[in-house]
Model the fold of this input.
Amino acid sequence: MPYIENIEALEILDSRGNPTILTIVTLDCGIKAKFSVPSGASKGENEAIELRDEDKKRYSGKGVKKACAIVNTKIFPFLKGMCALDQIAIDTKMIEHDGTPNKSKFGANAILSVSCACAKAASLYLKLPLYKYLGGSFARVLPCPMMNIINGGVHADNSLDFQEFMIRPKGAPTFSEALRWGAEVYHTLKGILKAEGHITSVGDEGGFAPNLRSHEEALDLICKAIEKAGFKLKKDISLAIDCAATELYDKKTGYTEIKKKALKQNFKTRTSEEQVLYLEKLIKTYPIDSIEDGMAENDWKGWALLTKALGLKVQLIGDDIFVTNPKFLQRGIKEHCANSILIKINQIGTLTETIETMHFASRNGYSCIISHRSGETEDSIISDIAVALGCGQIKTGAPCRSDRVAKYNRLLVIEHDLKTTAQYIDGNKFS
Ligand code: PGA
Ligand code: ZN
Done:
């Protein structure tokens, strides 16, 4: 049996140049596996806690030396000698020793780094690709990529309030073709932006970050790029947005056009009802089949309104509201909020809980979209999880920047590995 012989963590940098944890697990047979943890910018308030040093003299307080020390001196001693194949036991032990509801004692970054590195070590021991170790012999569904080609919100210093404008190459015959279609649209969009005098610098997730007048202008440009690249709107490629509405919401004032407000321009605010109407108008005008965080995490009533209005027409993904946590998803199911959940491994903090949340969502008819964070590393475990669970959708940024492309490239390798048994399935039933 593959016993855990050593666990060591060190501080490295993520794609934004902020510190994060890299953990290396060594088995008694000499096998080593590592995992590095991603980090969000538009975080849900109920996410598991990311432990930072708060020492202003280093990395503006963002260092993770304390979390590394927790892995090395607190977590390693009680996991030493455990069998790396016992993933549930390993994760449960960490949850128990942490003892807090939000992993604030050890930090979800410390715990997740160990959880994922152990799974990777176990798969190496069994000489199985990670997606087969996690998903078994029948894992063969490649997900529809949701590629964020225009960035806004807190991911870009531009004029757009909504955080993500994505394309979904759902009509492609295979994953590799879907990726090609997406990349071709991305490059065509760059040409259009350039020709129309916009900047073509990119945001945190590799999408362009132009200063546009409105969300509609962003959607128009994307539609233009899709057609110019030779694809049919809706049939070949549909659109998706992540409003990240938590960032725009205040209980007293409602949903505000925050970037216009910051620039002291004329800005609008919308009530929850008006926000629903606004989104309804967008889906009538554009081939959008997926809206993430259309409402804010604390606006449960607004979420129920949105779901009542659009829940039978379009995929409504809960990110901040559910934070990959079955407790919040349970409330969402009860109160008829959303019909889909975004899955981010560091929102909950262990692989076991991530997979449990995905099973729970599926049992209740909610689709699952496995997702990166805006601050990423070169690790591609989310690609393996997507195929292992066969959820049919992945959100991992533009086809640009190595931290994003690593995930797409991993899916290409998995597709190659599966040969003719690979299936490309879009998990969005509204597409
Ligand atoms: P985050 O954004 O990683 O900055 O939280 C991603 C998202 O909101 O989906
Ligand atoms: Zn989101």
In short: Residues 242, 244, 292-293, 319, 342 surround zinc ion (ligand 2) (CB under 6 Å).
